[in-house]
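tool_call: predict_structure(chain=1)
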Amino acid sequence: MLTFNHFNFNVSDLDKSMQFYKDALGLEPVRRKEAEDGSFVIVFLGDGKTDFRLELTWLRDHPQKYDLGECEFHLAMQAADYEAAHAKHQAMGCVCFENPKMGIYFISDPDGYWIEIIPTR
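tool_result:
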């Protein structure tokens, strides 16, 4: 049997991305791996409640902006207090799309990855 483990986003500025995920979503580092030659750093972030991890990968030899296509893929997170989360993300200026009819919205991280915020159902 297979189970979910993690999802990866490649990032251009690891410190900036880690700060964003801490501030916006409360995610904290749970594991870090660095290449001996400095060519990559991988940080796994967790929510402190589940075993699922978000892997942030920084690659030294990838200085250009990542091509995210049409942003059709995304990570989704549930908000126990949807209204408070929405107000916080509005204040941070990271809300990039809202669909009130569906009761969801998306935020965008420093590299342009979209994270869907849904209420706990």
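agent: DSSP finds two helices and eight strands in the chain. Proceeding to next step.
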